[in-house]
Amino acid sequence: MRNYLFLFSLFCITILQAKQIEVCKSCSISTIKKAVEIAEDGDEIFIKKGIYKENDIEINKSLIIFGEEGTILDGTNKGSVLHISVDNFVIRSLKIINVVVSYTKDYAAIKVVRSNNFTIENIVLDEVFFGVLIEKSHNGKVLNNKISSTSKDEANSGNGIHIWHSSNMEVSGNEVYGMRDGVYFEFVTDSKIHNNLSHNNIRYGLHFMFSNNDTYFNNEFVNNGAGVAVMFSKFISMYQNKFTHNWGSASYGLLLKEIYDTQIYNNIFEENTIGIKGEGCTRINYKNNTFIRNGWAIKIAGACYGNIFEQNDFMHNSLDLAYNTQVNDNRFESNYWSEYTGYDLDKNGIGDIPYRPVKLFSYIVNQTPEALVLLRSLFVDIINFSEKVSPVFTPDDLMDKKPIMKRIND
Amino acid sequence: MIEFKNLHKNFGKLVVLNNLDLSISEGGIFAILGPNGSGKTTLIKCLLGMVIPQKGEITYKDKSVLGKWDYRNDLNYLPQIANFPPNLTVQELIEMVKNLRPKQANEKDLIKLFGLNDSLQKKLGNLSGGTKQKVNIVLTFMFDSNLIILDEPTNGLDPIALINLKELIQKEKEKGKTILITTHIMSFVDEMANEIVFILDGKIYFKGSVDALKEKTNNSNLEHAIANLISKQYA
Amino acid sequence: MLKILKYSFYDLMRSRWSYVYFLFYLILGFVLLFLNNDVNKAVITLMNIIIVLTPLIGTIFGVMYYYNSREFTELLLAQPINRKKIFMGQYIGISISLTLSLVLGLGIPFVLYGLFKSAAIFNFGLLLVVGSFLNFIFVALSYNIALSTENKIKGFGFAILMWLFLAVIYDGAFLISLVMFDEYPLDKFSLIATMFNPIDLSRILILLKLDISALLGYTGAVFRKFFGTNLGMVLSMSILVLWVLIPVIRINLKLRKKDF
Questions:
Q1: pTM of the predicted model, to two decimals?
Q2: Are the C-beta atoms of A62 and A56 separated by less than 8 Å?
Q3: Residues of chain A with pLDDT > 90: what percent?
Q4: What is the tens place of the pLDDT at every residue in A118-162?
């Protein structure tokens, strides 16, 4: 009993005596490594401004590490910089630069392994290989960081925020650019990704695999090499995101591959080569999304069942829909189509004749991609018209029976 | 003044001018006659540079005209069918032609002579055939040039206008101008022409005065004399 | 030449058809903008119309003007003016008057609508530039046909056929050959086939602005380079210029031997 009491009081003392260790170039403690070494659980380390050329700093104590304007950790292109393997820590207000690119090891500016309850915020990472790399961790927050690099190709670049085998993570308010993937999720469950801006990354703005029950909203994905890929996952909610300017022969606003039971609503897809590409998607509701001036608003390839598209706006897309399989039980209803040429005599706001979103030309382009150069030619208009009158090649039952006459989600 | 040497022109297989030689001296009225399709108009158009001959040479005042255009400043041409841009007024057309030629023009007297004063502001599309021909005549005679070429000048003219035209031609002749006329109205030729050039099958068949022609065909009536020449072709 | 140009231009500017043409574009512009209220949609519809109609009107006006003014042309030919200047004057006169109908007819409603504040101004400007090019090209092409065909009906027929060929049949054959030779790399073929038809070329030029997202889905490397950079724009424009120059040069060559 006395022993326990002793231990408890010792613990209390430790908490109460949590101390702040200052690190600066002229201080007695001039390196971060040294500071970590002498620190105990619960201590704060304040790194004053200056450039600290250190790498592979092992942090195995629950610390709060923070810097100020001008605090720079320079990895000098040798390995990782911070390596954390402890619960309950906070890292805040630092700038970390120069993490070396490796083909064999995942060097990161901040690497977190097997950790619970942590926060990484207001960090600026520049010229890094991986930015924040988190493995097998839970209840973490990655907030308001700015991560960038000048990657040239996929092979020698890393991801901005890379999370693997984790749960209950929150990724919010970050800006990521010039990386391979902006945000990478693999086997991450019950997590939120919101208010992030991911742009000009080489591959995906967001890359998302085997991650169930996640939500992402209010994010913006602009000008990424291939847009956003969401694959092999269930029970996802995506809303109020913006997908813009993802251009290229294999680029989409959003790629959905093997996705089940997902809600996609209130998103804006603007000027992407393909707005949404769906492969093997089942029971997905697309509602109140806006598709503006995409090459293809939606491209469906293979084994999609039970998808419902309703109340979406399709505005001036080069082609609204490309479809190369059976319609199965996918449904288009009550959407607004800017290409709709029908009329509304009974003035109930719903067009009196159905709209067929698949044109003969989009069927042809599916077969012969080169035919795309003939987009909007008179000949194409003529064959589209004749197909509209008597469908031969395009799915007969694929139509929106209640096309709305006015924009829905203005 | 004008020399055609060895002039040859065919449209496809149809030979229109067949190594034709002709020289026309300065001063006087020359009537170019011949049956339909004998090459009268083609000959004139060669001289005007509108038809380009395959072979041969044309000189005007001892200078070659082929491929040139400035010699036309010394030449007035009355085309056969007068068809003008329908949306221009008569006044504008006259101004335009004046504008195109760097020469003094006296259109006022001519307009008065042919009674065109009332028509000046009318659009050409609204004019009758005869009035158009009058405009055509004004356009031709308003410049002072040494050579005047008239292709069927009497088309659609009323008698008063015809008399005016004849007087006009005589006046020009008196000034020493050279005037080439093609026409099918023989009385007009008889009355006006000093010399006749008769073309047949793309060649000069006869060239000489009216009297010489009558003499040659033993016919005191010019119309018959010409008919005589033409019938020889059919024979 | 300027004098001829001036008179041809005045002549056409007073013709009923110029007004009809001008009014057509004016009404079209107003209808598209004020009934639709969507500049983007208006630009797309306009593109479809300009691509098809401008060449047709250019062709018809060109042939018609040539045949209708033949006698007047003869009168001009007898004047001390160089032949080339007469025809170039007429050609430029027609082209400019048509272009003016187009630019004013569409420009007025768009300006009234507040185009200058809209982001669509570049697309719209490009439409007008392409439309003007098409005018110049098709008037030149139809003049070529008219110069080579004495018979008015025949000339008219050929001209319409030429339009039909370039506007519809060409693309049909193009599409069929793309589908037939599916398994071959058709990248360069498509690009070259596009260059050989001024209507297709103009269409691509506008697509580069309107549908760039779709065009960049193109897999061929040649095409991607062409579409993805300013190269496409510059190259297409210069080929359009060639499309004007070559028929005009041919008119001049033809004139050397032409009898009237």
A1: 0.83
A2: no
A3: 63
A4: 999 999 999 999 999 999 999 999 999 999 998 888 888 899 999
- CA–CA min distance C92, chain B (Å): 16
**How far away is chain A from the Cα of C4, in angstroms, using its nearest Cα?**
36
Q: Are A211 and A185 in contact (CB under 8 A)?
A: yes
Shortest CA distance to C46 belongs to which of C85, C103, C87? Answer: C103
Of B45, B69, B75, the CB nearest to C260: B45
ipTM metric: 0.88
What domains are defined for chain B? 2-234 (3.40.50.300)
A400 has pLDDT over 70: yes
Is C17's Cβ below 8 Å from some Cβ in B? no
- Euclidean distance between the first and final Cα of chain B, in Å? 35
Contact C200 A377 (CB under 8 A): yes
Beta carbons of A195 and A218 less than 8 angstroms apart = yes
Residues of C in contact with B90 (CB under 8 A): none
- Assess contact for A334 and A357: CB atoms under 8 A: no
DSSP-based three-state secondary structure for C101: helix
Structure-token match 């004046």, residue found = B98
pLDDT, tens digit, 9 for 90 and up, residues A154-165: 888 899 999 999
Which residues make Cβ contacts (< 8 Å) with residue C154, sequence separation at least 6? none
Nearest CA in chain B to C75: B79
φ/ψ of C108, rounded to 5, equals -60, -55
- Which of C194, C213, C220 faces A271 most closely, judged by CB atoms? C213
> What is the rounded CA–CA span in Å between residue C225 and residue C237?
16
**Chains touching chain B, criterion 3+ CB pairs below 8 Å:** C
Q: Name which of B97, B156, B112, B113 is nearest B131 in CA terms.
A: B156
| Rounded Cα distance, A89 and A84, in Å | 9
